[in-house]
Design brief:
disordered N terminus, Rossmann fold, binds zinc ion, alpha/beta
Length: 266
């Protein structure tokens, strides 16, 4: 037991040493594909932004190839119905989702790196991109919130990727962000592990609540998540915001796989 622990510790020490050596030898390795990223591909404006927001540069390198692959939909094709599979008696059937990128290519490669590789800095970059797209599309609101992570997953990952995206997005949009509005009333299973509409609706039903300290009456609120699949999680978060008095709720996610387009922009 101790031996295998030592071995694992040793391997992790070697791999972190190798990583640091590689970083020293190739300071501009792309965080997504690992290829050498030309120094000119570093985005100086983003570094300035990180300095202001976090008090330090991002330390992130993305090569030109990965960066140019992050191509958003055309401006008028970024609006969708929140639910991929709308159901009868939905109290908010027209709930809109702003989603600028398809979940494919570089985005599909990078998202698991954020969630399972703990690459928090990539989430920050994606949030800044999301905020930039939204700003260019003149999206306004009174408040931005993010989908909260369960305590267990927070412990496992150490951060909430939705929060990591929402904070820079809110800073770019100039809209206040509040992390203590929504909270999880109970834990849920991963939506991707469940089959069928009914199981997914039941899984998230009543999962979120708004803190009693917040009065959202009449406010326009944007609720953000990283990736959207069926949309049930965002829909449930939006429901909690409406129940707490929000005047209008808009869902936003960086990427997802969607066919059902919203006829009307927000
Ligand atoms: Zn790359």
């Amino acid at each position: 037991m101790t031996g295998s622990y030592m071995l694992r510790g040793g391997v992790s020490l070697v791999s972190s040493f190798l990583k640091e050596t590689l970083n020293y030898m190739f300071p501009g390795c792309c965080a997504i594909c690992g290829r050498l990223a030309d120094a000119s591909d570093r985005f100086s404006q983003y570094e300035d932004f990180c300095e202001k927001l976090y008090g330090h540069p991002s330390g992130l390198h993305i090569c030109g190839k990965c960066l140019s692959s992050l191509a958003p939909y055309e401006s008028d094709s970024r609006w969708f119905l929140c639910l991929s599979n709308p159901y009868k008696d939905d109290p908010f059937p027209g709930l809109a989702l702003y989603m600028p990128l398809a979940y494919e290519g570089v985005t599909k490669r990078a998202m698991p790196m954020i969630k399972f590789g703990k690459r928090r800095e990539i989430a920050g970059l994606f949030g800044a991109l999301l905020g930039t797209f939204m700003k260019n599309d003149s999206i306004c609101a009174d408040l931005i919130v993010s989908v909260p992570l369960s305590e267990a997953r927070m412990k496992e990952r150490g951060f909430n990727q939705a929060y990591e995206m929402a904070v820079p997005a809110a800073a770019i949009l100039g809209i206040p962000y509040a992390g203590d509005v929504l909270y999880r009333e109970r834990n849920t299973s991963r939506q991707t592990e469940l089959k069928g509409n009914n199981a997914r609706i039941a899984n998230v039903s009543g999962a979120f609540k708004v803190s009693e300290e917040w009065d959202l009456t009449g406010l326009t609120v944007i609720v953000m998540d990283d990736v959207v699949t069926t949309g049930f999680t965002l829909h449930e978060a939006a429901t909690a915001l409406y129940e707490a008095g929000a005047g209008k709720v808009l869902c936003a996610a960086f990427a997802g796989n969607r066919q059902v387009k919203n006829a009307e922009p927000y």
